[in-house]
Amino acid sequence: MSVPSSPKASPTIAHGLNLAQQEAVNYMHGPCLVLAGAGSGKTRVITHKIGRLIQSGMAPQRIAAITFTNKAAAEMRERAKGLIGKAAKDVVVCTFHALGVRMLRQDGAVLGLKPQFSILDSDDVTGILKDAGGSTDVATARQWQWTISAWKSAGLNAEQALAQAADDNERITAIVMARYEERLTAYQSVDFDDLISLPLKLLRDHAEVRQKWQGMMGHVLVDEYQDTNATQYEVLKLLVGGNPAEGARFTAVGDDDQSIYGWRGATLDNLRKLPVDFPALKVITLEQNYRSTSAILRAANNVIGPNPKLFPKNLWSDLGEGEPVRVVDADNEEHEAERAVARIQSLRAEGALAQAGKQYKEFRDFAVLYRANHQAKPFEKALRKANIPYKVSGGQSFFDRAEIRDLCAWFRLWANNDDDPAFLRAVTTPKRGIGHQTLGTLGVFASQYKLSLFEALFSNSLGSVLAAKAVGSLHEFGRYVNDLEYRARHTEGAEPAKIFMMDWLKDIGYEKHLLDGEDSEKVAAAKWSNVLEFCDWMALRCGGTLDDTAGVSEREVKTLLEVAQTIALLSTISEREKDQDVVTLSTLHAAKGLEWPHVLLVGVTEGMLPFKLNDGADSMGGSEKAHESANEDLAQRLQEERRLMYVGITRAQRSLAVSWTRRRKKGREMVAALPSRFIAEMGLDKATVREDPREKLKALRAEFAQKALTSAAAAAQIR
Questions:
Q1: 560: closest CA among 493, 482, 505?
Q2: Is 363 exposed, middle or buried (0-12, 13-18, 19+ CB in 10 A)?
Q3: Catalytic: 188?
Q4: What's residue 107's pLDDT?
Q5: Rounded distance between C-alpha atoms, residue 260 and residue 371, angstroms
Q6: Catalytic: 651?
Q7: Of 239, 262, 202, which Cα lies nearest the Cα of 92?
Q8: In the predicted model, what is the mean pLDDT of residues 237-243?
Q9: Which of 77, 417, 445, 656 could form a disulfide with 652 if both were Cys (CB 3.0 to 4.6 A apart)?
C-alpha cells in the first residue's frame, strides 16, 4: 500500500511538537531511527506518528506499535485513543511477547503447536528443568534456566548450544535443554523466550507465514529499541520485509544512553546493525528534554560523557536552571535513610520549589532509587518510623501469589489439557483424595505411552497399573475439567463469567482450602480477598471493559476460555496501583521510563553503583589475550553501570539528591566505602552541593516556631 509522504502534517496531528519531533512524525516512506533522549517526548512521537499514518491513508489494523511492558502498551493505547479517537482501537499496540502469542495462536500449527498452547511461568520452568536434569536442587535448575534463556535470546537451539559449549557445565546444560524442549513439545507448552524464538522460526522457515505477516504490517513502530535482544531484532527485520535498503517501513525509537538490560540479553549491536542492514535509514535526534531542569541535565550529560557514543547527542531544557543537585554523605545505611526522610520532610515543609503554582509537596512526588532490592530495608524502617506512607515498586507480582497461581493453573488446564504442570497443580489444589503415589504411577504410565497426564487418565490400560478406586477418582477429575472447559467456552460477558467463577470456587471449596491452610484467619481472609479481586478483574476482561495485553480492541466481549488463554502474558494488575499518595521506593532498573518531581538517588558508593568492578584483569593470571578479554568485559560493564546512573539522574524533574555512605554492610560485616566515581563525574559545583537535611529541617522548625510566636503576640495585642 502506497503511503503519501507529504512533508506537512495536519495542524491537529502536529500540534505541540517541536521541529525534530515533527520530522520524526512526518517521515513515513522508509526506515527511521528516532534517538529519543530521556524526557524528550518519545511516546508523544509514537502516538502522533500513528495518527499521521492513519491520516495518510493507512488502515489502523496495519499499524503495529511494539513496546516492552504491558503497562507501557496500555499507556500508549490510551494516549493514541486520546489523539486519534476511535480508529486507535484497531491499531495493534502490544509487547513483543504478546505479538509472539498472536502469531503462534494463528500460525503455530506449522510448528506442531495447537492454538490453545500453554505459556509456562518461571516456577513451571524450574520444575520441568529439575525433572529433565534429574536434580532436586532449585539453585542448579535456576542456573540452567538463566543459561538456556540466554541461549534462546541469542537464537540458539539445544543442538547449536551443545556444539559451541565452552566447558562441562555448558555441555550438561545443553543436554538438559534438549530434554526440556522435548517436554515442552509433549506438554503443548512454551516458555517466555519461545514467544520470541518460535515466531522467528515461523517467519524464517515458512515463506507463506512470512508473506502473510509482512502483508499485514504496513508500518511497525518499536519503542525502547535499545532494549531489544538479538532474536527480537531478527523478528523485526523479517516482519518489515520489503527491500531492506529502501522499502522497509518501520520506526525504531530508543536511546543508546539508556541501555541497561545487557544482563538479560539486550544488545547495543542492534543499534549498530541498523545503518548497515538498512543503508537508507533516516536518523533523527530528539535532544530537548521536557522533564528536568538544566542543573539536573548538566549532571546527566556529564556522567554519560565518558561513554563511547554510537550517535552523539546533548540534552537541553528550557525549564530554567532550577535547584542545584545535592550530594549528601552519611555514616552508614541507617544514617543515610534518616537523612533521606529529613530531606523529604524539609521539602514538604518549605514549598520553595513551587513551579507554575504547583507545590510538588505530595508524597507521590518523591522517589528513593537504589541499585539493588536489599537496599530498600533501612529506608522502609525510617519511613515507617516517620509515619510516611510508601510503596516498594517492583515487589511481588499479584500473579506470583500462591492463591492466584492456583486459579491460573485451573484456567490453563481448561485451555490446554496437555499442560502437565497445570494438571498437577489443579488436581492437588484443593486436595481431592488423589495422592502423590497415584499421580506418580500416572506419570510413569503417561511417559511410557508418550501421553499427557490428562490423556493418560482416560486410557483403557490405566487399570492395569492403578487400583479401580484411584482410576475412578482420576476419571471423576477428568470429567469435571471437561465440564468446566465446556462451560467456560460458552460463558461470555462480565456477569455470567463472575457467576461461573464464584460457583466453581464454591464447588471446589477453595475458601475453606485457604482457611485450612493458614494458621491465621486474617492471612486466609486477605488471600480470599485477592481471589475475589482477581475474579472481578477476569470478569471485566470478559465484558470487554479492559484492554487485552495483546492489543485486542476495547469493548470486545470474550468468553472466559478466551480470557484464560491470555493470563500467562500478564505480570501485574495495573489497576491496583492507581494514583496512591505514597513515596516510591524502587530499583533503578524498575524506575526506567518513570519520573518524579523529587528524586533521592541513594547508596551511590563504589561497589554498589558501579556494581562490583574490582575483578578485572589486574587480579587474574593467565595469558595476555585473557587479560584483554577481561578488561573488555570490565569496560562494557562500567559503561552499562554509567548508563544506569544516567537513568537514575534523568528520573528527576525538579530536585535531585545523591547520597553515599562512608561505611556499608557487606554480608554481616561493615566495610569502609568510597563515594562512587559517578559523583565526581557529575561535575557539580562543590560550593553548593553539600547539605545536611537534618540541619535544614531544624532551621525550618525554628522558623515556624518563631512565626507562631509572632502570630500569637500579634493576636494578644489585638485582644
A1: 493
A2: middle
A3: no
A4: 93
A5: 12
A6: yes
A7: 239
A8: 78
A9: 656
Active-site pick, 371, 527, 643, 651: 651
- Angle between helices 402-415 and 468-489 in degrees, nearest 10: 80
Residue 679 has pLDDT above 90, yes or no: yes
Residues 6+ apart with CB under 8 A from 311: 35, 256, 271, 283, 285
CB burial of residue 428 (10 Å; 0-12, 13-18, 19+): middle
> pLDDT averaged over the chain?
83
Residues 641-646 have a mean pLDDT of: 93
H/E stretch holding 381: helix 376-385
Spot the catalytic one: 223, 257, 323, 606.
Answer: 223
Task: State which H helix or E strand residue 495 sits in.
Answer: helix 494-508
Of the ranges 115-129, 240-254, 326-340, 356-370, the best mean pLDDT one: 326-340
Give the whole-angstrom CA distance, residue 606 versus residue 614.
Answer: 9
Distance (Å, whole) CA 335 – CA 383: 13
pLDDT tens digits along 446-496: 888 888 899 999 999 998 999 999 999 999 999 999 999 999 999 998 999
- Chain centroid to CA 669: how far? 34
- In this predicted structure, the answer to whether residue 353 has a pLDDT above a threshold of 90 is no
Distances in Å between the Cα of 352 and the Cα atoms of 271, 358, 359, 699, 708 are 42, 10, 8, 14, 19
**Cβ-defined contacts of 159-164 (< 8 Å, 24+):** none
Catalytic-labelled residue, pool 23, 193, 194, 224? 224
Q: Which pLDDT does position 443 carry in this prediction?
A: 84
258 a catalytic residue: yes
**Residue of 43, 232, 345, 639 marked catalytic:** 43
Q: Grid coordinates standing for 217?
A: 504490517
- pLDDT of amino acid 614: 61
Name every residue whose Cβ is closer than 8 Å to that of residue 67 and which is 6 or more positions away in sequence. 73, 76, 93, 94, 95, 222, 223, 224
**If phi over 0 gives left and psi between -120 and 50 gives alpha, with beta otherwise, what is residue 221?**
beta
* Residue indicated by cell numbers 504491558: 70
- Neighbouring CB atoms inside 10 A of 354's CB total 12
pLDDT tens track for 297-339:
999 999 999 998 888 888 898 889 998 999 999 999 999 999 9
**Residue 264 corresponds to which cell in the numbers above?**
538479560
Note the pTM of the prediction, 2 decimals. 0.76
Q: How confident is the model at residue 573 (pLDDT cuts 50, 70, 90)?
A: very low
Q: Of the listed 42, 326, 425, 642, which one is catalytic? A: 42
In the residue annotation, 223 being an active-site residue is answered as yes
Number of Cβ atoms within 10 Å of the Cβ of 168:
8
Long-range contacts of 127-133 (CB under 8 A, 24+ apart): 127/421, 128/180, 128/183, 128/184, 128/187, 128/421, 129/176, 129/180, 131/183, 132/176, 132/179, 132/180, 132/183, 133/172, 133/176, 133/179
Q: Which of 412, 463, 408, 470 has its CA nearest to residue 436?
A: 470
Amino acid letter, 391: K
